[in-house]
Specification:
The protein is of the alpha/beta class and about 475 residues long. It folds into 2 domains: about 270 residues, nicotinate phosphoribosyltransferase (Alpha-Beta Barrel), CATH 3.20.140; about 140 residues, TIM Barrel (Alpha-Beta Barrel), CATH 3.20.20. The strands form 5 sheets. Strands 13-12-1-5-3-19-20 form a 7-stranded antiparallel β-sheet. Helix 7 links the parallel strand 6 and strand 7. Helix 6 runs parallel beside helix 13. The protein starts with 13 loop residues before the first helix and ends with a helix.
Length: about 475
């Protein structure tokens, strides 16, 4: 679902359109090519990423068309000829797109999105696909890490006011919920994507009344089914928690204590304060009262608070999640991998002095190999799109960057799943996007396929992304040819 009805066709880099005119002049309109969108390094030096943003890519592709205003704007740039502008006036996407479903765990160098289309079409969509996939995949990955640190406690996404603008805040909240957050404070995102809207009140609510106790009482009157009180406006332990307990005692005496009630801490030594507050609440008989904390949290601080024995039941995470503050870019790229000639895809490769930037050539797919006994991921295998894997036979896989590292998966011990699925065929959308909360459930199952060693925050185990024998040999052949 789009968050704006604005035509996004010009959401592209200028050179995409200048290249389109170059292809047009050189009669390359109908050359079919393969482009791969992938990334090279896991965010936060982690062991995996979570892909997101496919729904917005679909909306973008469906709406691709140059309006009269767009054509007039491009004409005013005085670098496009009329024949080309006439072509743009009837432009529609006619190609194929394959993608790994949103919420999947993914790894470096494997295609998250594959575009098979006439080169002008495939070139135009590069920038928009990258901005949509890069941003949401980054936030989803960060959210997955935060939720992992919380060890099953609900995590609320609270970052809208610190996001890099409305779109980042709204789509970032969507991505965060996909990766495990219980809901968001962003009401627009909650409405657009049918996800839970969550929140309590600010310090300004407390300060607007003559006393903290009165503020708590009035809030409980307004929201009797969910009384969560912010207790750190003045003095957490000498004022906030005691006043909250007074309100809870009155509700209990009146038989109106709700199922959901508790306190929120937003500052101070959260481990110490939560443990002290827990003792005070328990001593007053409110053992079921929740303790929520917020305030510049991330996965590392939550993990630290957990190790200190904090008494926290839920977490509100804002700035460090919605901006992925310690790793602000996903780094996805979009590279030409093949050109179709005489009915066959001819592999293309990009070389670099930096080995990680050398691309994998050809029209490819991605196979995921699971351990049958545990359901955990053994490896991913990038192969040509026409290759198949026979699970009834042994499968030898190897690290393409260190070929002496290899293993054999014995027949019957592993299962195979092809990760790339059709999204557009001949310009028509053939994919039905699940609801966000359904993607969230799928993502949780995906994260369960990771070994614990891959999930750790420091020095995680690397999931191997291998190449099929055919693809490896093709890549080596191209490298040899270009290095003669």
């Amino acid at each position: 679902m789009a968050i704006t009805k604005e035509n996004l066709t010009l959401l592209t880099d200028f050179y995409e359109i200048t290249m389109m005119q170059g292809y047009f002049r050189n009669k390359k309109n109908n050359d079919i090519v393969v482009f791969d969108a992938f990334y090279r390094e896991n965010p936060c030096q982690g062991g995996y990423a979570v892909c997101a943003g496919l729904e917005q890519v679909i909306d973008y592709i469906k709406g691709l068309s140059f309006s009269g205003e767009d054509i007039e704007y491009l004409r005013a740039q005085k670098c496009f000829d009329e024949e080309f502008l006439s072509y743009l006036s009837t432009f529609r996407f006619s190609g194929d797109i394959y993608a790994i479903p949103e919420g999947s765990v993914v790894f470096p160098r494997e295609p998250l999105v594959k575009v098979v289309a006439p080169i002008m079409e495939a070139q135009l969509v590069e920038t928009a696909i990258l901005t949509l996939i890069n941003h949401q995949s980054l936030i989803a990955t960060k959210a997955a890490r935060v939720c992992l640190a919380a060890k099953g406690d609900p995590v609320m996404e609270f970052g809208l006011r610190r996001a890099q603008g409305p779109d980042a805040g709204t789509l970032g909240a969507r991505a965060a919920v996909i990766a495990g957050c219980a809901g968001t404070s962003n009401v627009l995102s909650a409405k657009l994507f049918d996800i839970p809207a969550l929140g309590t009140h600010a310090h300004s609510w407390i300060m607007s009344f003559d006393s903290e106790l009165e503020a708590f009482e009035k809030y409980a009157e307004c929201f009797p089914d969910n009384v969560t009180l912010l207790v750190d406006t003045y003095d957490t332990l000498r004022s906030g928690v005691p006043n909250a307990i007074k309100v809870f005692e009155k509700l209990r005496a009146d038989g109106k204590l709700p199922v959901r009630y508790g306190i929120r801490l937003d500052s101070g030594d959260l481990a110490y304060l939560s443990k002290k507050a827990r003792k005070m609440l328990d001593a007053a008989g409110f053992t079921s009262a929740g303790i929520c904390v917020s305030g510049d949290l991330d996965e590392y601080l939550i993990e630290s608070l957990k190790s200190q024995g904090c008494a926290v039941n839920s977490w509100g995470v804002g700035t460090n999640l919605i901006t992925s503050k310690d790793w602000p870019a996903f780094g996805g790229v979009y590279k030409l991998a093949a050109i179709k000639k005489d009915g066959k895809f001819i592999p293309r490769i990009k070389l670099s002095e930096n080995p990680v930037k050398i691309t994998n050539p050809g029209n490819k797919t991605v196979f995921r190999l699971y351990d049958k006994e545990t359901g955990k991921i053994r490896a991913d295998l990038i192969a040509f799109a026409d290759e198949k894997i026979d699970e009834t036979k042994d499968l030898r896989i190897f690290d393409p960057n260190a070929t002496w590292k290899h293993t054999t998966l014995e027949a019957g011990t592993y299962s195979v799943r092809e990760m790339l699925v059709p999204v557009f065929l001949n310009g028509k959308c053939v994919y039905e996007t699940p609801a966000v909360m359904d993607i969230r459930r799928y993502c949780a199952s995906e994260l369960d396929t990771l070994w614990d060693e891959t999930k750790r925050f420091v020095n995680p185990h690397e999931v191997y992304v291998d190449l099929s024998d055919r693809l490896y040999e093709c890549k080596q052949k191209l490298l040899s040819e270009y290095n003669k």
